[in-house]
Write a structure and sequence with these properties.
CATH architecture: Orthogonal Bundle
Radius of gyration: 24 Å
Number of helices: 11
Number of strands: 0
Distance between the termini: 48 Å
Strand content: under 5%
Order of helices and strands: HHHHHHHHHHH
CATH superfamily: MetI-like
Shape: globular
């Protein structure tokens, strides 16, 4: 039997501490989600806490009624459209920025920190500043204009960092070989560069979609007359909290996980083809 030396005891304590920390982390992260999922199937007379009073889909049926949690269907559609637009803009512009940074140019440092400023400025402060500017200019805020702008400011740095990492591992000799064979710049990009960086573009777009879809702080003052889904959920919490809110949270979570799974599937296919 091996002896418990001081060094082995130290390693055992460290491993045990990390195991306990990780276990608590999982409980605090996924515990509320599991509780929300279970309570969303309460019976008609069920409340927002245990014990369960029957099992039914009654609160999911209530989601169809606009009066239960506001215009949930419209809010979901607006959030989805907004997230898809942000996804495309993030993927395209982050790719263009990363390609520009492959070569040194005047003002590169200023441009880099300007893009990264989107990560540093608090969301509510950015929302307040944009709302104040729009009010001064007499331009009404809307979810498809002002909210779109601040969402892109928030998501673009993430996509940019993803694409920078992709190009750091990119073998430029493949492009040089294509040019030596007489290929034009457009042909080099379309036939060589794009297929290899496409998985990274999908990953950048995924960042844009997920960050925009559940963004709250940056949309608070800029959505205009119509709410996005996070704002609609927050508004419903000012009323009497019912299991309908849990049903809405569960449905939204399942939808988000489905979208992420679809993007990851596309990413996996493109990554295998690129290899």
């Amino acid at each position: 039997m091996p002896r418990w030396t001081p060094e082995r005891r130290k390693k055992a304590w460290i491993k045990g501490g990390f195991s306990i920390y990780y276990g608590l982390f999982l409980v605090f992260i996924y515990g509320p989600m599991i509780a929300m999922f279970v309570l969303s199937f309460q019976g008609r007379r069920g409340g927002t806490s245990f014990p369960m009073r029957g099992f039914s889909f009654y609160w999911y049926e209530k989601l169809i009624e606009p009066s239960s949690v506001g215009d949930m269907q419209g809010a979901l559609l607006r959030s989805l459209i907004l997230a898809l637009i942000v996804m495309v803009i993030t993927a395209v512009f982050s790719t263009m920025l990363a390609m520009a940074f492959r070569k040194k140019f005047f003002g590169a440092g200023v441009l880099f920190y300007t893009v990264m400023a989107g990560l540093m400025v608090p969301g509510i402060l950015l929302s307040l500043g944009m709302a104040t500017l729009l009010q001064y200019l007499g331009i009404p805020p809307n979810w498809w204009s002002s909210a779109l702008a601040v969402h892109v400011v928030w998501t673009l740095p993430f996509g940019f960092l993803v694409m920078m990492a992709v190009f750091n591992r990119f073998d430029a000799r493949l492009e040089e070989a294509a040019r030596d064979m007489g290929a034009s710049e457009w042909t080099v990009f379309k036939e060589v560069t794009l297929p290899l960086i496409l998985p990274g573009i999908v990953a950048a777009g995924l960042f844009g979609f997920t960050l925009s879809y559940d963004e709250f702080a940056r949309t608070t003052l800029l959505s205009g007359e119509f709410n996005t889904l996070p704002l609609d959920i927050n508004a419903s919490m000012t009323q009497r909290i019912r299991p309908t809110l849990f049903a809405l949270g569960t449905a939204s979570t399942i939808f988000s996980l489905g979208m992420i799974a679809a993007f990851l599937g596309i990413y996996s296919i493109l990554y295998r083809r690129a290899r």
